[in-house]
């Protein structure tokens, strides 16, 4: 009867006394990475990213199909194949108009605006280390609203109204930064207080413009614009929207890891070599560009930049290497789905600002009251 040979561990196989334990389990192949050696981002990032990457495609197809003029999946696929030159068949003119001249610009605008607000909200929450920070914290939303109301009251053409809204949004943030810089002992608190004051100032100025506006013509237009909508988006608006959105979001995504460093505190971030002051101004500049451009095209839409980062944080964690890209995708998908609801819920289109509040407030109440909630 043959007995099996079992090799017993000798003193040479064990680490010396007082040495660190084996970096790999006994019997494991040292050429393979240990399970705990995976970066934190990959542990919390890969699987949710696949899901969040598929969501925009599904929301895009759904948005093409729903609306006052419903389109079947077969018609939609046929039209898309024809548009991509994969088919020689023609598309009915009515279908072509609805899909590519009305819905496509609106869908792209919703994705860009939602991505801008989602990324800006996540970045500002990390910058101020405040879960209630939103894109309107420094007055960009209120300033853009005043600029648009002023342009409508002056009967300016629509491109001029958009430009005025964008410039006043930038101006409001510059004013907040100038006021906040005077509080040198606590710059972050100074910025927040200055942003609140600036927002209140421009909100009052907007109310004054509404008070003196023509109640039969200008006042309804101002009120509708302030409630937010994508119903009047045209292809030219995308050309106005795209450059500042890209200039705002791209740097945030490229330097998103620095928000993790800043979350440790300013002193710790400086000790790790981060230029806190320069990085703070970079984040403020990028978020202001993206927010002012978004608001100038679609009006005042709230809650997206506040709700979406928290929703993404529940899905991918608090690591900004995963959170910021997820907020970009999640913001676009969120606003796109809300815009779909605005088109199909009632006989008349519901303003987006109303729907985002109706969705955002219950979510925040649930988030604040759920067991173990941690903002």
TrEMBL record:
Record keywords, A-Z: Cell membrane, Membrane, Transmembrane, Transmembrane helix, Transport
Annotated segments matching region Disordered: 1-20
Lineage, opening ranks: Bacteria, Thermotogati, Synergistota, Synergistia, Synergistales
InterPro entries xrefs: ABC_BtuC-like (IPR037294), ABC_transptr_permease_BtuC (IPR000522)
GO MF entries: transmembrane transporter activity
GO biological processes: siderophore-iron import into cell
Database matches in PANTHER family: FERRIC ENTEROBACTIN TRANSPORT SYSTEM PERMEASE PROTEIN, MOLYBDATE IMPORT SYSTEM PERMEASE PROTEIN MOLB
Family: Belongs to the binding-protein-dependent transport system permease family. FecCD subfamily.
Main location: membrane
Compartments in which it is found: Cell membrane
Record Pfam families: FecCD (PF01032)
Regions that span the bilayer: 49-71, 107-124, 136-157, 163-181, 188-213, 241-259, 279-308, 320-338, 344-368
One GO CC term on file: plasma membrane
Name the record gives this protein: Transport system permease protein
């Amino acid at each position: 009867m043959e007995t099996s040979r079992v090799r017993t561990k000798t003193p040479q196989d064990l680490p010396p006394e007082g040495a660190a334990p084996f970096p790999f389990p006994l019997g494991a192949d040292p050429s393979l990475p240990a399970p705990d050696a995976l970066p934190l981002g990959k542990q919390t990032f890969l699987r949710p990213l696949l899901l969040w990457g598929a969501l925009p495609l599904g929301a895009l197809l759904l948005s093409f199909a729903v609306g006052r003029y419903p389109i079947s999946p077969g018609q939609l696929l046929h039209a898309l194949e024809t548009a991509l030159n994969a088919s020689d068949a023609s598309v009915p003119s009515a279908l072509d108009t609805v899909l590519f001249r009305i819905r496509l610009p609106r869908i792209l605008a919703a994705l860009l605006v939602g991505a801008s607000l989602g990324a800006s909200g996540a970045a500002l929450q990390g910058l101020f280390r405040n879960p209630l920070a939103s894109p309107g914290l420094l007055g960009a939303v209120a300033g853009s609203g005043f600029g648009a109301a002023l342009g409508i009251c002056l009967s300016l053409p629509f491109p001029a109204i958009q430009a005025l809204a964008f410039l006043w949004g930038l101006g409001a943030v510059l004013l907040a930064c100038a006021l906040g810089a005077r509080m040198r002992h606590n710059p972050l608190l100074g910025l927040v207080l200055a942003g609140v004051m600036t927002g209140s100032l421009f909100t009052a100025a907007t109310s004054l413009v509404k008070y003196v506006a023509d109640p039969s013509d200008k006042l309804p237009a101002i009120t509708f614009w302030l409630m937010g909508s994508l119903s009047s988006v045209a292809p030219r608006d995308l050309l106005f929207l795209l450059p500042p959105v890209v200039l705002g979001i791209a740097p945030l995504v490229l330097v998103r890891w620095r928000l993790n460093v800043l979350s440790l505190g300013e002193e710790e971030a400086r000790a790790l070599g981060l230029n806190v002051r320069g990085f703070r101004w970079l984040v403020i500049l990028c978020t202001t560009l993206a927010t002012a451009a978004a608001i100038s095209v679609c009006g005042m839409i709230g809650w997206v930049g506040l709700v979406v980062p928290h929703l993404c944080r529940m899905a991918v964690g608090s690591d900004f290497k995963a959170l910021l890209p997820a907020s970009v995708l999640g913001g676009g998908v969120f606003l796109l789905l809300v815009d779909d609801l605005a088109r199909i819920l009632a006989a008349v289109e519901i303003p987006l600002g109303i729907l985002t509040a109706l969705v955002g407030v219950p979510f925040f109440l649930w988030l604040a009251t759920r067991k173990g909630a941690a903002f």
